[in-house]
Structures are given as C-alpha cells and as structure tokens.
Automatic annotation (TrEMBL):
Keywords: Cytoplasm, Glycosyltransferase, Purine salvage, Transferase. It comes from the Bacteria. This is Xanthine phosphoribosyltransferase. It comes from Paenibacillus artemisiicola. Homodimer. It catalyses: XMP + diphosphate = xanthine + 5-phospho-alpha-D-ribose 1-diphosphate. 5-phospho-alpha-D-ribose 1-diphosphate binds at residues 128-132. Its main location: cytoplasm.
C-alpha cells in the first residue's frame, strides 16, 4: 500500500501523546480512491478466508469497511456507539474502554445481522490498544460467529494492540505499521 504510506508521510500530523492526525483522508475528509485501494488490498488478503460479514465501529471504520465489503461481496455492519443504553434483548452489547479518549462507550449490533453461520472480518481505521477490535470480536462470539481476521488501516506498533490480538489467536493484517511517532516524525516498521 504505497499510496497509504505516502499519504501518511505527506499529510499525517504528529500530535502530543503519540497520536497521528490523518483527518485529510481518513478521519474527517475521506479520500475515496485511497479507500477503494484499501478495500482491494483487504479483499486480496482475506479472499480465501470464507468471510460472510464485515464488521467495524462507527464512524471512521466505515469507509475502509464498506470498500472491503464491496470487494468481498458480503454485507458490512457498523457497530453503533452510545453513551449509555437500557438493555435491549434484540441487541448484542459490549463495553469498550478507550485509553486514547479515557472514556468507556457501549457498542451495539442488532441480533438480526449476525448468526452462528457467520465468519466475520473485523476492519478498523486505527489499532492502538486493541480494545475496539477486541470488543467487536466479543460481539461476534456472542452471536456464535467466528472471527475470520482483523484488518487495520493504520497500526501504532509501539502500542500493545497487535500483541493482544495475536495472543488471542486472531489473524491481524495492518496496511501501515508505525514503529514510532517520536520527534514529530513518522517511522514505519
Ligand atoms: P484501541 O481501540 O486500539 O484500544 O484504541 P483507543 O481506544 O486508544 O482509540 C480510541 C479512538 O481513538 C478510536 O477512534 C481510534 O481509532 C482512535 N485513535 C487511536 N489512536 C489514534 C491515532 O493515533 N490517531 C487517530 N487519528 N486516531 C486514533 P474512535 O473513538 O472509534 O473514533 P472514530 O474516529 O472512529 O469515530
Ligand atoms: Na478513529
Ligand atoms: Na475506529
């Protein structure tokens, strides 16, 4: 994914606390051509994985996830985020703690969109501590579905997310892996 690496180098802005701002093409303004190529790449990587559903969390995971769903010709589901929620029987619900934002959110998926027959490919824009991906995996498991793999656009490899996901036996494919954001510089693995 040469284009993704170029975009990160040219347009990424390194903020305090090891945060990379990429709002020109991923987190606010969206580059559709780049998202299309991201979908093609995940499509190739997971072509033989028997994927039946793509799952992400709103909002920034939606663009890469929908392009992947276009390639693999399976539906895409985005988990919805809520601050708090009275328990509802027709929803799978998981709590996800964000270290970056220092807040917990509840994410939900309607029971009608996941079944034990599903093999779910989890897609997300960033992998930092791995909590979002693990929360999605727990939703898949609640449904009795299998996790076919996890596809990440930008992995911050200096944070523990990748290790936590591998430890649980998941296949992780990250299109850009950042080794360091020190001194305002992006260094890839
Ligand atoms: P984790 O899921 O891997 O544990 O990550 P964490 O809780 O630390 O991240 C919470 C939110 O911050 C997520 O977005 C995640 O994508 C985003 N994030 C983490 N590190 C970075 C970074 O370096 N740069 C950017 N731009 N985002 C980062 P979210 O709350 O789900 O928001 P949304 O943008 O998807 O709506
Ligand atoms: Na995000
Ligand atoms: Na996200």
């Amino acid at each position: 994914m040469e284009l993704l690496h170029q975009k990160i180098k040219q347009e990424g802005v390194v903020l305090e606390g090891g945060v990379l701002k990429v709002d020109t093409f991923l987190n606010h303004q969206v580059d559709a051509r780049l998202m299309f190529e991201i979908g093609q790449t995940f499509g190739e990587l997971f072509a033989e994985s028997g994927v039946t559903k793509i799952m992400t969390i709103e909002s920034s995971g939606i663009a890469p996830a929908v392009m992947t769903s276009l390639q693999l010709q399976v539906p895409m589901i985005f988990a919805r985020k809520r601050k708090s929620l009275t328990l509802r029987e027709d929803l799978y619900t998981e709590r996800i703690y964000s270290y970056t934002k220092q807040e917990e959110s509840e994410v939900t998926v309607s029971r009608k969109f996941l079944t034990p027959a599903d093999r779910v490919l989890i897609i997300d824009d960033f992998l930092a501590n791995g909590e979002a991906a693990l929360g999605m995996a727990r939703i898949a498991l609640q449904a009795g579905a299998e996790v076919a793999g996890i596809g990440i656009v930008i992995e911050k490899s200096f944070q523990p997310g990748r290790g936590k996901l591998l430890e649980q036996g998941f296949r992780v494919e990250s299109l850009a892996r950042i080794a360091s954001l020190e001194d305002g510089e992006v260094t890839f693995v």
